[in-house]
Write a structure and sequence with these properties.
Blueprint: H1 3-15, H2 27-32, H3 42-51, H4 62-67, H5 86-110, H6 114-124, H7 135-138, H8 161-164, H9 197-211, H10 220-231, H11 238-251, H12 258-277, H13 287-303, H14 306-322, H15 331-334, H16 340-364, H17 383-387, H18 397-403, H19 411-434, H20 439-466, H21 475-498, H22 505-528, H23 541-553, H24 556-566, H25 574-597, H26 602-628
Pfam families: Fungal_trans
Region (Disordered): 1-20, 122-155
GO molecular function: DNA binding; DNA-binding transcription factor activity, RNA polymerase II-specific; zinc ion binding
Length: 629
């Protein structure tokens, strides 16, 4: 474009009227969203061309004139967009509403019942969030004028909202930190109402199929009668906690409920702790409370860390003492309850806690909590009579040891007797540590050791006579047999750690031979029943397998010396190699059993962490010992 054309274009622009007349559209045209035909006088048009500023219109626009409307122009219209600080307030209100929705969804996912839906309707009809002050005036106002959560009517479960709320800046909070108060914790956590009748029946059946054979403390008929009462009760109680503890432990023995297992565990522990906090009478302890904590301890040994489980078990032991379950059969205590089944449940609860106390001492030689000399509770009756509703009164523990007759005892009673022998071995070890190393002390140690060894052999022989066929289909009996051999290994460890004199060498060698035989017997039992699912095995079965694997793996040179002492002169060295291959296969069988249980038993996983680093080194040393020979 040339300069002359640009000049003519610029002059033409200033001379002719604009295409769009200036000024805002009238109110009627804005509402109808049509073009406002502004009506200007010639003088107004000439003034706009010279000054570029529109004047006030006096006559109506063409649209209002044709329609007979009043043409009004608003010259003081508010600018578009939010005011300064309003956007931040809107974001804070959206955050509060979002947290309420999250809490509501959480509640509905746990309790999709009609009551929860009613609470949700009331929650959705709650008054809206109060309008927030602008950022410019927030510093001049007191946030205490806004209502706090404690002043508003809210559902009882809304105390969980403060857990899920995302962090917000102080300027966006609907209340100041100076006036903020956490909502009071409810007396009970929300119940998992999503357990329908079918799931309830499935969990009950799973418990009595896989857990009850290992922890036989309940009568099935009595439990199902009480289960119908639990469904009609309002609010948490110890019966409900016990039922949840049973379901939680049952879930740990199945892969079907793996996704719900942790939720049930947290729910059970929360209810038990809340009920304990609201318990005022220290002398009143219900047996359901003791049973729930015992089952929770078993679950934590299988699925949680050992330290937490050990503390929970200690809590259960103290509750056993507080409930005086160690003296159920004292005359004044026996007169309080005439129900034979209820009395038998108390006995079984005590003996389960008793043998659990002994099992915990095997690992780290901790002091015992339930002392044998204080027991005035009879041994548990046979399971058949107990489930039939007519339990038979058994003998006391001291009467069995005095008579030496172990006939017609239940597997739980057999396990309690064997672990009592172990407890005496632990007491013997502790007494030896406290005594000075004099000859008389050493003689007394070996006398006590001989008594423990003879009593253990007698108990094991009686167990074999009463039950000629040991099968993993009876988990408690199978576990009792395994623990009888494990006690022999543990007694050998005590002898090796306390006997350092040369005169005791023959006795130590004899204990080592018996311990090796016991370890190989445990490996044989594991091999014979490796086809049976380990879901039905006792939770502490990895303890016996670990003791056997440790004995089979340890001291390869000592194993060679003992085998050479037993081998007649002139025998071939291939016999020693065959024995070596057999011991190696038995050790691998124990390791495979622990590997099979590590996915659902934390005890097996912890023992594998101890054995696996030493496995390759020990096998190399074992082979080198035979090559040297």
């Amino acid at each position: 474009m040339t300069a002359a054309r640009r000049r003519r274009s610029a002059v033409g622009t200033t001379d002719r009227a604009p295409r769009q007349l200036p000024g805002s559209a009238c109110e009627a045209c804005q509402k109808r969203k049509v073009r406002c035909k502004n009506s200007y006088t010639p003088i107004q048009r000439f003034r706009f061309v010279l000054t570029k500023t529109p004047g006030d219109r006096k006559s109506p626009c063409g649209t209002c004139k044709d329609g007979g409307l009043v043409c009004e122009i608003n010259t003081q219209r508010r600018p578009r967009g939010p005011k300064k600080g309003e956007l931040k307030n809107l974001r804070s209100q959206v955050g509060v509403c979002l947290n309420r929705v999250v809490a509501l969804e959480r509640r509905l996912s746990l309790d999709p019942t009609e009551e929860a839906l009613t609470l949700a309707t009331q929650f959705s009809e709650a008054p809206p969030v109060p309008e927030m002050p602008s950022a410019s005036s927030a510093s001049d106002q007191d946030f205490s004028q806004f209502p706090s959560p404690s002043c508003q009517r809210r559902p009882s479960w809304e105390s969980d909202i403060h857990i899920a709320m995302s962090p917000m800046t102080p300027s966006s909070l609907p209340m100041g930190f100076s006036t903020f108060q956490f909502p009071p914790s409810p007396q009970s956590p929300p119940r998992c109402a999503f357990v329908d009748d079918l799931m309830r029946a499935d969990l009950d059946q799973l418990y009595f199929d896989r857990v009850h054979p290992n922890v036989p403390i309940f009568s099935q008929s009595r439990y199902f009668a009480r289960s119908r009462q639990i469904s009609m009760m309002d609010g948490p109680n110890y019966l409900l906690c016990l039922q949840y503890a049973m379901w939680t432990l049952a879930m740990s023995f199945s892969s079907q409920f793996e996704s719900s297992r942790d939720l049930f565990y947290k729910e059970t522990r929360h209810m038990l702790e809340n009920l304990d906090l609201h318990e005022d009478d220290m002398n009143t302890v219900r047996v359901e409370q003791v049973q729930a904590w015992l089952l929770l301890a078993f679950y934590e040994f299988a699925r949680c860390n050992y330290r937490r489980a050990w503390i929970t078990a200690g809590r259960a032991f103290r509750l056993v003492q507080l409930a005086r379950l160690h003296e159920v059969d004292i005359s004044e205590n026996a007169a309080e309850c005439d129900d034979a089944v209820s009395m038998e449940e108390k006995r079984r609860t005590f003996w389960v806690a008793y043998y659990l106390d002994r099992l915990l001492c095997i690992r780290n030689r901790r002091p015992l909590t339930l002392i044998e000399e204080m027991i005035c509770t009879r041994l548990p009756s046979s399971d058949l009579a107990f489930q039939g509703g007519s339990p038979v009164q058994e003998r006391f523990l001291e009467e069995v040891f005095a008579s030496g007759d172990h006939s017609l005892l239940s597997p739980l009673a057999e396990s309690a007797i064997l672990l009592t022998i172990f407890g005496r071995a632990v007491s013997q070890c502790q007494a030896q540590r406290m005594q000075p190393t004099y000859a008389s002390a050493s003689l007394e140690f070996w006398m006590r050791h001989e008594w423990v060894k003879n009593t253990l052999s007698s108990s094991l022989n009686s167990l074999m006579v009463n039950h000629p066929v040991i099968s993993a289909a009876e988990p408690m009996l199978f576990f009792s047999t395994m623990m009888a051999h494990a006690v022999k290994i543990y007694m050998c460890q005590i002898v090796e750690s306390t006997s350092h004199e040369e005169s005791c060498r023959p006795n130590v060698v004899e204990c080592q031979n018996q311990a090796m035989h016991a370890a190989r017997e445990i490996a044989r039992l594991v091999k014979a029943h490796e086809h049976i699912p380990y879901f039905k095995a006792h939770i502490f079965l990895p303890l016996a397998i670990f003791l056997a694997a440790s004995r089979l793996m340890a001291h390869p040179n000592r194993v060679v010396e003992n085998m050479q002492a037993l081998t007649p002169p002139g025998s071939s060295c291939y016999q020693g190699m065959e024995v070596k291959d057999g011991i190696n296969a038995e050790f691998q069988c124990c390791m495979n059993a622990l590997r099979s249980m590590q996915s659902f038993n934390n005890l097996a996983r912890e023992y594998l962490l101890v054995l696996e680093p030493q496995e390759s080194f020990s096998l190399t040393a074992f082979q080198g010992a035979f090559l040297c020979e």
